[in-house]
């Protein structure tokens, strides 16, 4: 895994999604999204949102689906 | 102030609930059945002379000084070994008894050096006291006969001496080592007149099995075993009760003083966590507080390549504040943050997070719990509804089966380890799940019934396999689950764990553990009576740390092992106040009392009292701060009492992050490794120099009391207040008790806590509020805090940290008894006598394959970095696994650990790193480079006249 922050965020999002993957699909998506909203600071969420906008390379299907519905980050 | 004298009742308290009535010297008293006559008399205020008895130990009956007469019985039985009977009539003082006692004392004294005036225990010696008590005024036997008076001293232990000539062979030390500490290091060697106490096989204390806990020293009634400080300083004249600042056990001590000099720390019998016991760290290793390396003046510098310049507090704080303001003006409000310390008090931690939220105006606050027990907080709050352990330490006395997972209590939590061993010697069963054969697996009179030596990183697989056995073999406590837990969730979980892929046989390919052992262990835990789980960082510090915590919580619920004494889920917390720092709102997503920052009502209550508007977005966690620093969006940091450079994983990334900061303020006792990258250094003060509270692993809030003035001029909370004020945010507290009052006003689980209550009760376990005014020793009685207990599915996902041809071994890290964490404190004490360097434990097969001999210098390399250290060949580790500690900055084991972390909390995966080990002839390039940087960075400019 490289040290680029975006790579790390993708990795973390996938890890979270993997945990929730054992739950039914809708719960897995909601669980992953809620976890990220609760624990990631706005700049991390902005970065991953930009990554999604740029194609979301490397994200697992659950992570991607969860992140596509992420609440927009308010301006500081 | 005077010296606190605790009453010695002579024998331990009886646990019987039945009372019996006895007449002692004409006075009738009621005591629990099984109480000794000696104790009953003392409870009535009547002290029977004694030498071999003390209430920390079972009665022994050897000195014959405590004889009494009992109506209707012949002879003069020993009062320490004779239990009271209902209606018994006892006389403790008659002519006959007086004569016998004088005779006994005379014999003792005739073989004792009479150098009382120059003896280190003068005034603190029970032999001296008893000579007075029995009225001994002359000794008829001369000193010409055979005696022990010229025997030498053993001074090998750095903290206490053993002066054989003064020994009265009362056996108290031997029994203390066995009963209290459980080490069995001492024996009485020789017979009759020739008998003397001896560590091991006539070894010196230092080379014996002795772990220097001090229990024997405390038990010794004479100067035979005595603290060296009593020779150097003299006897103490006043004392205050305080709390150890090392580990999460939270032992209570009397700090015994002469003026403002600390003579010794004596464990306090009333301490609810330690019950009068201690370990080498809290008992003896406090010398760091007065070590010459302590920095007592604030310092600043514009760049880390310049030497430090000593300045006034005002100048240092004004400079720090102006830098933080400049950075925020340039890079935005969220470009700065800070780290609270799990070694500082609750009040200090609370103030630092208040400064960050109130004065910086963001939530970029985190704490070292991030790198140890954050998965505990997450896992237990999801399943049970509270981020804390379920029991008090006393609970272990009622456990029948003890399951220890990824913890090494005899080294990491020594006093609790001793209490656990005591219960195991009484017959409780033991299951150990650990890649290493930790001491507990086989120690004197304790042997694990099952040791599951799993491969590092496979906890979830093992714990889920235990659940598989429990469910598929019908061992679930269905009544408990139906009553207390969500039944539908349980059924999903039961179906999940029952799948054949979770069976012990199927997971063996990951765990390496014999399925028969897993099945046996599961049956024992589920059916052996009260089952208690204790776990440590071997559970949390993994990419699936939070998942393992949930798997453990599931296991306890399924077997009904929650909500009463003797059972429960117990995280063994590392640092003294790691529970407290989490409680105090040190995490970037939550306010004190574990309430999410997005909750408007909670925010409003803080906003009203603090007079600010709070940011409603979670802040950065420690590893995210380093990432953001490297990215250039995070530029300033205030770090109180925490050495992130040495303690956090992937040192090179941390150093890159710290190096990118424009303003790093470090507040600490020493110029620690993090301070190599700092621009402002604020001197910290030790736990002896301030008031406050710590909260231990059992949620017990305990007082820390100031026994001397801060050597650096201010307590840490005062320095934080000054910094807040310079940032334009006024904080106004005259004493830490006022900070606690504010915490109590704002935190529902703390509303009943105050210094007055702590002074009255000694300590209290949160929740302490209207519902539980006396606190809560055991949680989830009658129901879970979250309502219904929640079963969560725990799929095993192998870590991405895998061995391969380049890195074929797995490194796991840990700690040892005599050193503490990054060692900043213990390395500056005589504890280095036991552990002067970090070493690498390697299995004989792996060593042989690589041509490594015991004691050779080896290079330990992972994809993150490499370091060199000495190898120790040991069968404690399995083939394929190597182990080291992280106490010494020269080794910097964390150069090797990687950036992988727990999926939920980013708690680093310290416990699994793929490595290679090869013979080496010197330090690695990183070690050399870092050594140069440290030397350069620690320069302090000569003060200009
Ligand atoms: S110091 Fe502790 S371990 Fe050592 S001999 Fe005394 S009681 Fe035993
Ligand atoms: S060393 Fe002290 S405690 Fe031990 S037997 Fe001698 S006098 Fe008693
Ligand atoms: S067990 Fe922990 S709290 Fe107790 S004395 Fe040792 S280090 Fe201190
Ligand atoms: S105190 Fe009872 S025999 Fe020694």
How do you describe this structure in short?
The complex is a heterodimer of chains A (76) and B (945). Chain A has helices at 5-20, 25-39, 42-53, 61-68.
What are the main properties of this structure?
A: mainly alpha, 4 helices, 67% helix, globular, B: 945 residues, Ubiquitin-like (UB roll), Alpha-Beta Plaits, Rossmann fold, 5 domains, seven-stranded mixed sheet, six-stranded mixed beta barrel, 17% strand, binds iron/sulfur cluster, binds FE2/S2 (inorganic) cluster
Description:
The complex is a heterodimer of chains A (76) and B (945). With 76 residues, chain A is mostly helical. In chain A, 67% of the residues lie in helices and 0% in strands. In chain A, helix 2 packs across helix 4. Chain A is globular and about 35 Å long. Chain B is α/β, with parallel strands linked by helices. Chain B is 29% helix and 17% strand. Chain B contains 29 helices and 37 strands. In chain B, the strands form ten sheets. Chain B has a seven-stranded mixed sheet with strand order 14-13-28-27-26-15-16, with helices on one face. In chain B, strand 11 and strand 12 form a beta hairpin. In chain B, helix 16 packs across helix 17. At the A-B interface, helix 1, helix 2 and helix 3 of A face helix 22 of B. The structure holds iron/sulfur cluster (SF4) (3 copies) and FE2/S2 (inorganic) cluster.
Question: How would you summarize the topology of this molecule?
Answer:
The complex is a heterodimer of chains A (76) and B (945).
Chain A: H1 5-20, H2 25-39, H3 42-53, H4 61-68
Helix pairs in contact in A: 1-2, 2-4
Chain B: E1 19-24, E2 27-32, H1 37-43, E3 69-70, E4 88-91, H2 95-110, H3 126-133, E5 153-154, E6 160-163, H4 172-181, E7 186-189, E8 196-199, H5 215-219, E9 225-227, H6 228-232, E10 238-243, E11 252-258, E12 261-267, H7 280-284, E13 299-300, E14 309-310, H8 313-331, E15 336-340, H9 346-360, E16 365-367, H10 374-383, E17 401-405, H11 409-412, H12 414-425, E18 429-433, E19 442-443, E20 446-447, E21 450-452, H13 459-472, H14 478-484, H15 487-498, H16 504-511, H17 515-527, E22 531-535, H18 537-540, H19 545-558, E23 569-571, H20 578-583, E24 590-591, E25 595-596, H21 600-610, H22 622-631, E26 636-640, H23 644-647, H24 651-659, E27 663-668, E28 680-683, E29 692-695, E30 700-704, H25 716-726, H26 736-746, H27 755-761, E31 763-765, E32 809-814, E33 839-842, H28 844-849, E34 857-861, E35 866-873, E36 881-885, E37 913-919, H29 925-937
Parallel strand pairs in B: 1-4, 15-16, 15-26, 17-18, 17-22, 18-21, 22-23, 26-27, 27-28, 32-36, 33-35
Antiparallel strand pairs in B: 1-2, 3-4, 5-6, 6-9, 7-8, 10-11, 11-12, 13-14, 13-28, 19-20, 24-25, 29-30, 30-31, 32-37, 33-36, 34-35, 34-37
Helix pairs in contact in B: 8-25, 9-25, 9-26, 10-19, 13-16, 13-17, 13-19, 16-17, 22-24
Pfam families (chain A): FdsD (PF11390)
Protein name (chain A): Formate dehydrogenase delta subunit
InterPro entries (chain A): Formate_DH_dsu (IPR021074)
